[in-house]
Amino acid sequence: MRRRDRESDSFTVSFLDVASCGFGAMIILLIITKINDPVTLEIVDVPPEGRVIELQESLFAIRGETTILNRELNAKHEQLSALTDRVARLRRDLNDIEGRYQTTTELSDETTDEAGKLAIAQQSLTDEMQRLLANSPAAENNAVGGVPVDSEYIIFIIDTSGSMFNNPSWNKMLGVIDNTLDVYPEVKGIQIMNDMGDYMFNSYAGKWMPDTPSTRSRIISTLRNWQPYSNSSPVEGVTRAINTFYSPDKKISIYVLGDDFQPGGSIRNVLQTIDRINVEDANGNRLVRIHGIGFPVIFDFPQRFRQSVYRYATLMREMTSRNGGTFVGLNDFR
């Protein structure tokens, strides 16, 4: 009986030991294990219906302000475009005025030089020279309409730019050449070049064309559709014609036909270039005569383009005066 009681007490103690160890282990696991707070993935705030209406009204107000601002921005762009155009017009007018001033300055310098030369020449005249001049017979004047026609060879330098070719002035120019040839019933040679020095007939490059009725007819016929490149400056054509065709035993006249001289060119430089090539002989005569004919085509254009007409007239008037020729400015180009 005592032995059975001893076995029952032993079993009870062992069970309590195991239970205590188990609870202790669980407590230790809870202590050493880190417990985190729950993670919030997204907070959704669902506004009430009144808040939605308020936000919609704000959106509509912003859109209205955006529309107004866009209209104001477009208006500013239009104002800026108008101001830009005005500035461009003012710059063109300024360039026009500067070009006229440059032309006037060049002419003033040329006039001053010529006046100085004239004063020196007048001072060098003696009474004896004046008496001899008074008793000398007047020179024969072979001129038609103020244009000397004593030459035996004729060269036409024609401006083939668009302003000449694409206007009624081209037909007018054909008539002028035809009338000029009529003034010379017969010459020993004819040549046609444009203002760049390009030949109308390459087969006659560097040599004279014979003056025959068929040649004259062929010239007028070919001119109707002849338009090589042109920079509206006669200097290249005139210099090439003099360098190629001058001969001391030939009387040559050059006829320059054009309508404008662009502001980019220098009148003084052109005149000086021609002076260096078409020099005077011992008697003060130039190697060739240079005549000029001006077509007022640009007067049919807006005002800002007309400066080139004045420059052409100024250039040719001075060039022809220096080189024994005459400048004729037509009053109509049709």
CATH architecture of the largest domain: 3-Layer(aba) Sandwich
Q: How much strand content do the residues show?
A: 5-15%
**How do the SSEs run, as a string of H and E?**
HHHEEEHHEHHEHEHE
What structural class results from the helix and strand content?
A: alpha/beta
Spans of at least 5 consecutive residues with low confidence: 116-129, 136-141
Concise overview:
The protein is of the alpha/beta class.
Overview of this protein structure:
This protein is α/β, with parallel strands linked by helices. It folds into 2 domains: 48-122; 150-329, Rossmann fold (3-Layer(aba) Sandwich), CATH 3.40.50. It contains 9 helices and 7 strands, in the order H-H-H-E-E-E-H-H-E-H-H-E-H-E-H-E. The chain has helices at 2-32, 49-124, 127-135, 162-165, 169-183, 213-223, 235-245, 267-277, 307-322; strands spanning 143-144, 147-148, 153-158, 189-194, 252-258, 289-294, 327-329. Strands 4-3-5-6-7 form a 5-stranded parallel beta sheet, covered by helices on one side. It has a two-stranded antiparallel ribbon with strand order 1-2. Helix 2 (49-124) packs parallel to helix 9, helix 7 (235-245) packs parallel to helix 8 (267-277) and helix 8 (267-277) packs parallel to helix 9. It is elongated, with a radius of gyration of 49 Å. The model is unreliable at 116-129 and 136-141 (pLDDT under 50).
